[in-house]
Amino acid sequence: xxxxxxxxxxxxxxxxxxxxxxxxxxxxxxxxxxxxxxxxxxxxxxxxxxxxxxxxxxxxxxxxxxxxxxxxxxxxxxxxxxxxxxxxxxxxxxxxxxxxxxxxxxxxxxxxxxxxxxxxxxxxxxxxxxxxxxxxxxxxxxxxxxxxxxxxxxxxxxxxxxxxxxxxxxxxxxxxxxxxxxxxxxxxxxxxxxxxxxxxxxxxxxxxxxxxxxxxxxxxxxxxxxxxxxxxxxxxxxxxxxxxxxxxxxxxxxxxxxxxxxxxxxxxxxxxxxxxxxxxxxxxxxxxxxxxxxxxxxxxxxxxxxxxxxxxxxxxxxxxxxxxxxxxxxxxxxxxxxxxxxxxxxxxxxxxxxxxxxxxxxxxxxxxxxxxxxxxxxxxxxxxxxxxxxxxxxxxxxxxxxxxxxxxxx
Length: 410
Fold this sequence. Notes:
The chain has helices at residues 20-31, 46-57, 89-101, 120-127, 158-167, 186-198, 228-236, 255-261, 294-301, 323-333, 364-374, 396-402, and strands at residues 3-6, 13-15, 37-40, 61-65, 68-72, 80-84, 105-109, 131-134, 139-143, 149-153, 175-180, 204-206, 209-212, 221-223, 240-242, 265-269, 272-276, 284-286, 307-311, 337-341, 344-348, 356-359, 381-384, 406-409. It is of the alpha/beta class.
């Protein structure tokens, strides 16, 4: 789907979609629990559906009634299964150790750039603990994951640690994960330990070491809180955003601090936030813990006065696209001025962007960031491959129109 956005003023109120980071983890915990659970997920996405589909392939019953999802664990899990992870790196890296802890001979497949996403460090560590894996993609594993001591680098993907934290409570005996510093995107690990605690699993954290005891999750009633990652796009459009938890452990709640550093005025009342983004200035941003925010921050910085430098974002090169390069191309395609560095980008702000055509590159965050930038363009913006938003926020363009956006499907 290609679309044309005619620049217009945006305003109003929108509810943030459910955090897919939280929803992934809650669905997996509920599937492994001792009883059925209900989870409120106000808005779903292809990534969340990928995790749900994988769980259903394991015999888990998932019933959806509007926003309420009922998850019923099976009496027993199958000996063999094939799991389609779609394009979701989270689904692949979480389900891989989980199926191995259950002793399932599994084939995990997917598409897009998923086969290119790093997985070897996790697989290598699992092979030291009872798992056999064939090389290549799709990934085929057999054997049963055992407890014990694990060591894994913390600067490649926090999802490796999350996958182990979800799986090791299923294993016999005590387990320990030593995360080798530096630990990047640690807030995502904090989301995992928080969700596990909601399901009755207490992870002991001592510095960079996580201790795990064998414990089955306890089912119940849960709500996937609003997503600060996708809520950031709404805040960047200057609208009122509801459903965001101020005391969330989500790392992307730092969008408020980033917006303030750019000169935005923040208003908050209970769980409703808004930002005045009309008078911004350049700044420096360390993106080590907030990589998903870089494209939308860059869209705002492209019309901020002065220069903005974003650094510690090298992992963006391994996302759905090389997000450093695709973010630079997005800005420059709209008449802005951005250059890539080895671990980020430098943006020289302009009063207005001219508009133009942006290749969405199959990346949901590039597409949504281009839509944010379009509001500050003099001429229409064409975005190709706009359907990429379905990965995390299928309702994004409907929301955009309800907030005053003018969109034509080409």
